[in-house]
Amino acid sequence: MKYLLGIDLGTSGTKTVLFNQEGSPVAAALEEYPLMQPRNGWAEQDPDNWWHAARKTILEVIGKSGINPADIAGIGISGQMHGLVMLDSKGKVLRPAILWCDGRTSEECKEITGIIGKQRLIEISANPALTGFTAGKILWVRKHEPELWARCAQVMLPKDYIRYKLTGVYATEVSDASGTNLMDVANRCWSGEILQKLEIDKDLLPKMYESSDVAGIVTDEAAEASGLAAGTIVVGGAGDNAAAAVGTGVVSAGRAFTTIGTSGVVFAHSDSVTIDAHGRVHTFCSAVPGAWTVMSCTLAAGLSLKWFRDNFCGEEIQQAKMDHIAPYVFLDGAAEKVPIGSNRLIYLPYLMGERSPILDEHSRGVFFGLSAMHTKYDMLRAVMEGVAYSQRSCLDVLHEMNVYPEDMIVTGGGGSSALWRQILADVFNCPVKTVSNKESPALGAAILAGVGAGLYPSIQKACEAIIRTNPPQQPNREHGKKYNGFYEIYKALYPQLKQSFSKLAAL
Fold first, then answer.
1. pLDDT tier for residue 320 given thresholds of 50, 70 and 90
2. Could you say which of 48, 311, 365, 424 is the most buried, measured as most Cβ atoms within 10 Å of its Cβ?
């Protein structure tokens, strides 16, 4: 029996899962690490904390499983995107990594847009200059920490640092590199034009691979540190959402998933490159060779429900504890009793500003239509419906780009709610379902390793053999018609409030 190792480097911790070659998890381990915020709006982590977590969890899953490490056919890595890791000429970390959620680079993004031109940047990199992306972070360090920048010999993305520690190879892959603003996404390579105009030396960037390509092998030193067998192959891997797409079987046209986690994501596969000229959603290279993905990101999906629960549902949390059920299960039951449309109450989920599809950091959350008749359970259901409307507004952009998912897989904590899934099915007007395996990013990384190791002929064939879905929830057409009326109002609210959001931010 051969095994595959999937390492998922998250923002709060690294999870490593050992799978057999049929895709069943054998052992898993999680190691958390701190997030540093030296200033308001900044977010950093020590890359060596990631490596410590990876080593510890690898050792743990090998120990739990009792397998011979030589039976691990390959290793795949997924992880948080967009972060900036800087190494000196000896491969030592120069400064804490600047993360995807760090917002310090607004001025640098304006500079990039001015140098490249907004439309030209979108034409090449398939995305506007965003504070979360890597290019702005490079310009920020070059401007504010010139002594450190002068010592920088290599720039890489977070998950690629783990591969470097395992293999000694500087490498990245197309899905993660797509989120840097430095890549020619259509041609799957670094953009000479962008690098030249931004005066970034291409030699600072790692060699780029496809996600299932073998990028290196485990060194003797890394084997001793991690318990792996020296010579084990390590593939390119993928950014977290691209890996989740593989782990949920979203690897062919017509397939898509929605994630209701802290943020909200609609992620669809496309066999051809298609770019939104307005930059409302992201186009990235898929982990599948020769394919692309279109992805939206809203900033407060599950976060909206958590915010509401933590601030207004203390009694319900206590009652759920007494009833020995999860608080969200209790709240689902309360929201289910509220009629569609939440008694004419609409919620805009802009608690953290918004990214897709409005790209407005000044936007803020709104309850619209609030009256003395409303209870907190009306507000609770309005939050769930508002998040669904926000995801539909992103799906509408995909439709404009001729990307039409035929059904939808739902993942993340919100995906465990049957009520929320039904709301999504009705609002999207398409079936929604869940996958049997809950380790989507780690499984996706492991599948990529299996293809690289030759256990499967292709990513699609691997997914056909491994991924299992639960029965879908079908859309209710009558419910969908009711939701449509509220959704039309939802869409009209932001344009009417946009200037007021900006004025509020200026006070």
1. very high
2. 424
**Both tokens of residue 213?**
């390509």
Q: What are the respective helix, strand and coil percentages of the chain, to the nearest 5?
A: 45, 20, 35
Is residue 349 very low, low, confident or very high in pLDDT (cuts 50, 70, 90)? very high
Handedness of CA 42, 47, 53, 54 (dihedral sign): positive
Confidence of residue 204 (pLDDT cuts 50, 70, 90): very high
DSSP string, 155-177: EE-HHHHHHHHHHS--EEEHHHH
The DSSP bridge partners found for residue 238 are 78
120 three-class SS: helix
- The single residue listed with the structure tokens 């507004």 is 393
| CATH architecture, range 3-248 | 2-Layer Sandwich (3.30)
Rg (CA), the chain: 22
Rounded Cα distance, 404 and 350, in Å: 26
Whether 46 is catalytic: no
Please give the span between the terminal C-alpha atoms of the chain, in angstroms, as a whole number. Answer: 64
Tokens 């596969």, residue located: 269
Answer for the pair 487, 390: CB distance below 8 angstroms, yes or no: no
**Residue spans in the chain of domains classed CATH 3.30.420.40:** 3-248, 302-397+476-506
Torsion, CA 268, CA 156, CA 125, CA 193, rounded to 10: -160
Maximum Cα interatomic distance, the chain, rounded to a whole number of Å: 69
The structure tokens 């052992």 sit at 27
Q: Which among 160, 176, 240, 276 is annotated as catalytic?
A: 240
Buried b (16+ CB within 10 A) or exposed e, 60-81: bbbeebebebeebbbbbbbbbb
Residue range 302-397+476-506 in CATH 3.40.1160.10: no
Looking at the chain, the number of H-run helices and the number of E-run strands are: 18, 23
d(CA 260, CA 262): 7
What is the spatial distance between Cα 145 and Cα 313, in angstroms, rounded to a whole number? 46
Going by C-alpha positions, the residue among 378, 363, 245 that lies closest to residue 300 is 363
What SS3 state is found at 337?
A: coil
Per-residue pLDDT band for 103 (boundaries 50, 70, 90) equals confident
CA atoms of 380 and 498, how far apart (whole Å)? 24
Helices (H), ranges, 401-476: 418-428, 440-452, 459-466
Beta strands in 271-332 (DSSP E): 282-285, 292-298
Question: Exposed (0-12), middle (13-18) or buried (19+): which is 457, by Cβ within 10 Å?
Answer: exposed
Residue-level pLDDT at 438? 80
For residue 102, give both structure tokens: 């760090």
- Report how far residue 357's alpha carbon sits from residue 394's, in angstroms, rounded to the nearest whole number: 6
Residue with tokens 């891997």: 237
Residue 129: CB atoms within 10 A of its CB come to: 25
